[in-house]
Write a structure and sequence with these properties.
There is one protein chain. A hairpin with a 5-residue loop joins strand 1 (2-7) and strand 2 (13-19). The chain has 2 domains: 2-85, no CATH class; 89-129. It is an alpha+beta fold and 129 residues long. The longest helix has 36 residues, at 91-126. It is built from 2 helices and 6 strands. Strands 2-1-4-3 form a 4-stranded antiparallel β-sheet, with no helix packed on it.
Length: 129
């Protein structure tokens, strides 16, 4: 058994599925359509099983039926927006963030020490011996 990918009628990734090792290429997913009285039910294609590995780096994998290969299902603009959002934080921004955190810690540390001593003192006084 191996992993294959179920896609919709437009080739967009839906979910991984398990298929026999012997299965390759593209297979149709067929379902029986409901039949009217006196008519025969008809098989309709509801999706496909693609027994080809999805390459890494695709945000929204989409099977290209014309070229028989995986491609990006997002537009270039959508991919650019994702990449812009994932830009690493600049070194200057990291330094500023660390300085702020350090200042907060320096200001909060004496207060924390003072409060923890008072709590310990109260707890020790109220504990029966």
């Amino acid at each position: 058994m191996k992993e294959a990918i179920q896609v919709d009628l437009d080739g967009f990734y839906i979910e991984p599925v398990i298929v026999p090792f012997s299965q390759t290429g593209v297979s149709e997913i067929l379902e029986m359509s409901p039949a009217e009285v006196g008519e025969e039910p008809v098989n309709i294609v509801t999706g496909y099983i693609i027994a080809e590995k999805v390459p890494e780096g695709l945000y929204t994998p989409r099977w290209d039926f014309t070229n028989s290969e995986w491609g990006e299902g997002l537009t270039e603009k959508e991919v650019d927006e994702i990449r812009a959002f994932q830009q690493p934080v600049a070194t200057e921004q990291r330094v500023t963030r660390i300085k702020r955190q350090s200042t907060v810690f320096r200001l909060a540390s004496p207060l924390w020490n003072l409060l923890s001593k008072k709590v310990k003192t109260k707890w020790h006084k109220s504990t029966p011996t």
